[in-house]
Amino acid sequence: MTDILRQHAEQQFAEELEELSRNDTRLRPPNWKLSPWAVSTYVLGGKLGNGFEVSPKYIGSRRLIEIAIATLATDRALLLLGVPGTAKSWVSEHISAAVSGDSTLLIQGTAGTSEESIRYGWNYAKLLSEGPSKAALVDSPLMRAMEQGKIARIEELTRIPADVQDTLITVLSEKTLPIPELNEEVQAVKGFSVIATANNRDRGVNELSSALKRRFNTVVLPVPESVDEEAEIVERRVKSIGRALELPAEAPALEEIRRIVTIFRELRDGKTIDGKTKLKSPSGTMSTAEAISVVNGGLSLAAHFGDGVMRSNDVAAGIIGAVVKDPIQDQVVWLEYLETVVKERDGWKDLYRACRDIS
């Protein structure tokens, strides 16, 4: 077992990528490691002609993933849009790993992301001693992607200040990155593209300019369609993370995961699964990613402070922590849901008592 806490996609799934490459006889765009068909098979899972099973990395609409991959085979950049927890970063990482064999050319968007983070910076010691030169230049992940014909990833694009976002316009339209200090430019090699992610809740924080929007093809990743689909996503991710963390606990029963997913979906949708009862929604997102976190936290409690079997008292605190972000408003929403839904639901008495004890 490796000591690395979290392997990159191309490391964790190296066997699958190698097997796909070996069996991939379809046309590959310039500098792509796999054909678009093989990339979609890697992301969505499937069985190869030799019987090798490729595990699904994303559970959802096949057509959306095909559109995203097809976009990257053109000269357009890709924007993955959706509410928090819809696997935008996960899809971005795995597509980059399959297309370029490298998912590490990453720029993390924050309010403090500077123009240098996107374009290039300088080694100021060399700059002062030698003046502007190639040796003094510090290339960004975007510049390296252009030079190597790979995919650059930009996370949380709408968190980056608007004037810094617009640094991308020349790169995406002209496929060049000017370096005026050296009177030079970096021209993108075939295979270069950009995958950016942004979530719907951040619209208006740093809204993309119309000029920048036009240079992206946008694919909206929806929340999972059903409880079963979301529960399967949570189960798969929990197993993967549990192996990486080496948690000495039994895999949680699917029914326990379904209860957590049901709570999150009902509060997110503002109604019960059967549609009979309207509910108030909390201020948080109640995303699939948070459900995964709750289950992992419950497994850790069960492993280190229990008998290794995850029960309702192991996940109660995690559920409340995910729901109650505002200690006043969300607490009212949660207690109302607890008393009107959880308490009255058959087979949920243990979860009600565990949550009530903490609430």
Report on this model:
It is a single chain. By secondary structure, the protein is of the alpha/beta class. The protein folds into 2 domains: 9-220, P-loop containing nucleotide triphosphate hydrolases (Rossmann fold, 3-Layer(aba) Sandwich); 227-358. It is 47% helix and 12% strand. It contains 17 helices and 11 strands. The strands form 4 sheets. Strands 4-7-10-3-11 form a 5-stranded parallel sheet. The protein has a two-stranded antiparallel ribbon with strand order 1-2. Helix 3 (36-44) runs antiparallel to helix 4, helix 13 runs antiparallel to helix 14 (288-305) and helix 15 packs across helix 17. The chain is globular, with a radius of gyration of 23 Å. The two termini are 39 Å apart. 39% of the residues are buried. The model has no long low-confidence stretch (mean pLDDT 92).
Summarize the structure.
The chain is α/β, with parallel strands linked by helices. Helix content is 47%, strand content 12%.
Q: From the alpha-carbon coordinates, what is the Rg to the nearest angstrom?
A: 23 Å
Tally of extended strands? 11
Q: Can you list the strand order of the major beta sheet?
A: 4-7-10-3-11
State the CATH class of the largest domain. Answer: Alpha Beta
